[in-house]
Design a protein that fits this description.
Elements (H helix, E strand, L loop, with lengths): L3 H20 L10 H23 L6 H10 L8 E5 L3 E6 L2 E7 L6 H18 L1 H5 L2 H13 L7 E3 L1 H12 L1 E3 L2 E6 L2 E7 L4 H5 L6 E5 L2 E2 L5 H8 L6 E8 L4 E8 L1 E3 L4 E5 L3 E6 L6 H15 L6 E5 L8 H9 L6 E7 L6 E4 L10 E6 L6 H11 L3 E5 L7 E7 L5 E10 L15 E2 L7 H10 L1 H13 L5 H9 L10 H11 L1 H10 L9
Parallel strand pairs: 14-15, 15-18, 18-19, 19-22
Antiparallel strand pairs: 1-2, 2-3, 4-21, 5-12, 6-7, 8-9, 8-10, 10-11, 13-14, 16-17, 16-21, 20-21
Helix pairs in contact: 1-2, 2-4, 3-4, 3-6, 10-11, 11-12, 13-16
C-alpha cells in the first residue's frame, strides 16, 4: 500500500526532476514512471480545485471541509467506502474496516489535502474493485461532485468533454456554420449560417451529409459527427452531401472558420421591431448592435418601438448582458455584483449612447428567463427605459466564475450576487413584470384590463419587491406568487407588447408603475 508520506516524496522528487530536465535534457522526462506522473497529476488537479473553491466561492469555506466532502464523494462509486475525521486524524474505511489513517493537514492547506485525497483515492483502488476499474475522469467527477454537493445548486464540475461543449457555447468554435439533426439515422442540415463557409460553398437546408473527409457517416451520434465537422482554424474539410430535390451527390471543400452560435434574431414590421435573444455568448452584444444599426438605417420613422423577447433565455456571459443593456441606456447604473473575492465586486454604468434612439421598449420575460436575461430586464425596468411583460423570471441572481483545471475540466463556482439598480438582490426573487400574464391563455386584452384595474396594487407590490431582504425567504416567496413564474410560449406577451407600443399613453402608465423613485432616475 502506498503511504501518504510516499506520495508526498514522489511528488517532490518528480517536481525536482522535471525542473532539472526542463533546463537540460528533455528526453530524460520519459525516465519518470507513468505511475508517478499520474499521481502528481492527480495531486495538482485536487490542489487546484480545493484552492480555487476556498478562495473564490461566495461563502467562506475551509479547505478541510471542501476536501472531506470530495473524499466522501468516492462513495458514489463504491458505497462501502466511508471517511471519518476528528480534530487530528482522517480515516478511510471500507465495510467498516480502516484501510488508511493519516494526520489531518491544516484546515487551509490546499496542497496537503490534495496529497491526502490522492493517497486515499489510490489506497481505495487496492481494496475496492469498483474504484479500481473506474476510469480517471469518473473518479474526478465523484470527488468534485462530492465537493459541490455541499455548495449551491449553480456550482458544478464539468469534465473535459462537457467543458469543451460549454466553452464552444460561450466562446465559439472552429467549424463551417451549419446545424443538423439526425433523421432516420442520417445527418440532415437544418440551418445554414449566412456568410459562413457552408453557405458560401452552397450547402442548403435539407441536404443530407453522407461523408466527411471521405469517411462514411454510419451509425454515428450527433456529437461524433459534430466533432468531425469541427477542427482547427483554417483547416480544410471535405463534406459530401446528397440533395434529394436534385437527385445528386456532390462534394464541397471548405476551410473551417471561427463560429459563434447565433443568439439574436430580428423581425421588422411596419409598426415595430421584434428582437429575440436566445442566450448570451461572445457574439450577442455585437449582433444586437448590428441589428439595431441595420434597422435604424433601413426603417421609416413610423416605427412605434422595440420588443425584446427574453422568454426561455437561460442566460450566459455576464458582460454580454451588461453590453446589451448598455446599448439601450444613455446613462445611469446597470447592475452591481457583490461577493467575497475582491475581483467579484463590480459596479457597471451605461456608457452614454442609446442605439434605439429613444424608441419605446417592451421586454418579455417568463419563468425560464434567468441570470443574464434577468440583468437586462431589471436594468431596463429600473432605469425607466422599458415596460416588462410576462411572468416572474427564474430568480437566478448569482454570478459563476469558471475555473479551468489541469485536466481541462472546469469548476463553475458561484462567487457573487447581482444587485439591481434599485438595490434588490435578484437571487431567489427574479424580475417582476409590470404587466403580468401568469395563467393567461390567449387574451392580451384580459391582461391589460387586469393591469388597468390593479395599478395601485401592482405599484405597491413592485415597491415591496425592491425592499424585501435577501434572507426573507417567506416574504420573497409570497411576492413571487403575485405573478407566478411560468414557461410562456404563446404569442400573448408579444401581442401585449404591440398594443403598448401603439398606445403611448398606455405605455407610459405601465412604465410609471415601475418607477423606482431613486435619485438616479430623476
Amino acid at each position: 500500500m502506498v503511504s501518504f508520506a510516499q506520495i508526498n516524496s514522489i511528488y517532490l522528487i518528480i517536481v525536482v526532476v522535471v525542473g532539472l530536465v526542463s533546463c537540460s535534457n528533455p528526453q530524460l522526462v520519459n525516465q519518470s514512471s507513468s505511475s508517478d506522473i499520474n499521481i502528481t497529476r492527480r495531486i495538482e488537479i485536487y490542489t487546484a480545485g480545493y484552492r480555487n473553491i476556498s478562495e473564490k466561492y461566495i461563502r467562506k469555506l475551509n479547505v478541510s471541509d471542501i476536501a472531506f466532502g470530495g473524499i466522501q464523494g468516492l462513495a458514489s462509486i463504491d458505497p462501502a467506502l466511508k471517511i471519518e475525521r476528528d480534530d487530528a486524524f482522517v480515516r478511510l474505511l471500507i465495510n467498516g474496516k480502516e484501510i488508511a489513517f493519516n494526520k489531518a493537514p491544516k484546515p487551509m492547506d490546499s496542497r496537503g489535502w490534495g496529497f491526502l485525497t490522492t493517497h486515499f483515492e489510490r489506497t481505495a483502488t487496492q481494496y475496492s474493485r469498483l474504484i479500481e476499474i473506474a476510469d480517471e475522469e469518473k473518479i474526478y467527477e465523484a470527488v468534485f461532485d462530492g465537493v459541490m454537493a455541499n455548495l449551491d445548486a449553480f456550482s458544478r464540475y464539468a469534465g473535459p468533454a462537457e467543458a469543451e461543449v460549454n466553452r464552444a457555447r460561450r466562446e465559439g468554435f472552429s467549424g463551417i456554420g451549419i446545424e443538423f439533426n439526425i433523421k432516420s439515422g442520417k445527418p440532415v442540415i437544418t440551418n445554414v449560417q449566412s456568410n459562413m463557409p457552408a453557405a458560401l460553398g452552397g450547402l442548403r437546408v435539407n441536404d443530407q451529409i453522407t461523408h466527411i473527409d471521405g469517411s462514411e457517416l454510419f451509425n454515428l451520434t450527433k456529437r461524433e459527427i459534430a466533432k468531425r465537422i469541427q477542427g482547427s482554424m483554417r483547416s480544410k474539410v471535405v463534406i459530401r452531401v446528397y440533395r434529394k430535390t436534385e437527385g445528386r451527390h456532390f462534394e464541397i471543400t471548405m476551410a473551417r472558420t471561427h463560429i459563434v452560435p447565433k443568439t439574436v434574431t430580428t423581425e421588422v414590421t411596419d409598426d415595430f421591431v421584434y428582437i429575440k435573444i436566445s442566450g448570451f455568448n461572445q457574439g450577442t452584444a455585437d449582433s444586437m448592435e448590428k441589428e439595431l444599426q441595420k434597422v435604424r438605417r433601413s426603417s421609416s420613422s413610423r416605427l412605434n418601438g422595440l420588443i425584446i423577447d427574453l422568454r426561455g433565455n437561460p442566460g450566459g456571459l455576464l458582460k454580454q448582458s451588461i453590453r446589451v443593456a448598455d446599448l439601450l441606456l444613455s446613462k445611469g447604473h446597470i447592475i452591481s455584483t457583490r461577493g467575497r473575492h475582491p475581483d467579484s465586486l463590480h459596479h457597471y454604468e451605461a456608457s452614454g449612447r442609446d442605439f434605439a434612439d429613444g424608441w419605446r421598449i417592451v421586454v418579455l420575460v417568463d419563468g425560464k428567463s434567468a441570470s443574464a436575461s434577468e440583468i437586462v430586464a431589471a436594468a431596463l425596468q429600473d432605469r425607466g427605459r422599458a415596460v416588462v411583460v410576462g411572468t416572474a423570471s427564474y430568480g437566478k441572481g448569482t454570478v459563476q466564475t469558471v475555473i479551468r483545471l489541469p485536466n481541462n475540466g472546469e469548476l463553475n463556482l458561484t462567487w457573487s450576487r447581482f444587485i439591481a439598480p434599485s438595490g434588490y438582490a435578484l437571487q431567489g426573487l427574479g424580475v417582476r413584470p409590470a404587466i403580468c400574464t401568469s395563467q393567461l391563455k390567449n387574451s392580451p386584452q384580459q391582461a391589460l384590463v387586469q393591469f388597468l384595474s390593479n395599478k395601485l396594487k401592482t405599484r405597491s407590490t413592485l415597491a415591496s419587491w425592491r425592499q424585501v431582504s435577501l434572507y426573507a425567504k417567506k416574504a420573497r416567496k409570497v411576492l413571487r406568487e403575485t405573478c407566478a413564474a411560468e414557461q410562456r410560449i404563446t404569442s400573448v406577451e408579444k401581442e401585449i407588447g404591440k398594443i403598448l407600443l401603439a398606445n403611448p399613453q398606455l405605455f407610459l402608465q405601465a412604465l410609471e408603475l415601475a418607477d423606482t423613485k431613486i435619485e438616479a432616475l430623476k
